[in-house]
Amino acid sequence: MQGWFVxxxxxxxxxxxxxxxxxxEAREEAELCYAPQYGAAKDPVNICGMVAANAVRGDVxxxxxxxxxxxxxxxxxxxxxxxxxxxxxxxxxxxxxGQLRERLEKLPRDREIWISCGVGQRAYxx
Length: 126
Description:
With about 130 residues, the chain is mainly α.
């Protein structure tokens, strides 16, 4: 099956909140052929599989955007300042990942912190 078709199919599953079940290894290790004319080297299906596997293993806790208004959580954006200035979650604060260790004292200790970035890798590292 072509990678672009799988991406479109996955989009329908997300849009209509359908469940697509693979075992953990299949989600994370899906081998989709890379063809530049049809898809990216980091195919969305693989990225979704990696995110799902992280959640299933308990490596990360996921938060949904609809929970933002109902939570006291601070949203910490760990992208660089230029990315943050280009658009960010309303009310979030920006501490780039490279500066986080030096600026930890600026973070509140009395509330939950939700970490955000552009793709998920920097938030995972934070």
